[in-house]
Amino acid sequence: MTSNGPTEFTTTSDLAARLGDLARHLQEQVNVEDTLQSIVESAVHTVPGAAYAGLSVVQARRAMSTPFASAELVREVDRAQIEFGQGPCVDALYEKHTVSMPNTACEQRWPRFAARAAQLGIGSMLSFQLWVADNDLGALNLYSHAAEAFTPDSERVGLLFATHAAVAMADAQQLAQLSQAIDTRDMIGQAKGILMERHRLTSDQAFTLLVRASQHTNIKLADIAEYLTKTGEFPASL
């Protein structure tokens, strides 16, 4: 997906309306993956100067990846950041601020990455850390073929966009975790029911039996419950 970037916002009301539409659009997404893909696609049409966008995440403060992007070119550029361990996204992830690379042709902070990005046709980049309540979630990265594509207005709009995106991302992840917790609770309840009926146990006794099985096999309680509900038996390792 490519774009020449959105039109500059002429009034604060225009920007507020666009961000309001963004918040509603992100809230309508049905899962975390759809929310994150919508963030990168919406960024291209919201932040002045952006032709492409990507969402990078880091696990255990080590392994960076870009699972969501508006085009494959984004992943190629980010693979160079990962390979060289340098670039605006890397700094945005770890140093908690907005990072701009106005011109890849004369960039001195990340020489190896800048040279590779220029070879790939990228002239400038703008990166924002996504965070909520001091929790690092990732970085929103914007790309343009042109040098000096991102203006002070791009940074202003991008920072507001990133704030909305971070909240939507955190909410989506929280809902996914809640849904998983509910599914796990229901699975354990079904497993308890099987044991209660089969062995004439109370609810507490059945739960204790599941916990002991988990401890004895070093298998997660939820996995023990799922196996029991699907097969009617405890794992063979018991």
TrEMBL record:
Keywords: Kinase, Transcription, Transcription regulation, Transferase. It comes from Nocardia pseudobrasiliensis. The keyword Transcription regulation applies. It comes from the Bacteria. Residues 168-229 form the ANTAR domain. GO terms for molecular function: kinase activity; RNA binding. SUPFAM superfamilies: CheY-like, GAF domain-like. It holds the Pfam family ANTAR. PROSITE patterns: ANTAR (PS50921). Signal peptide: none annotated. This is GAF domain-containing protein.
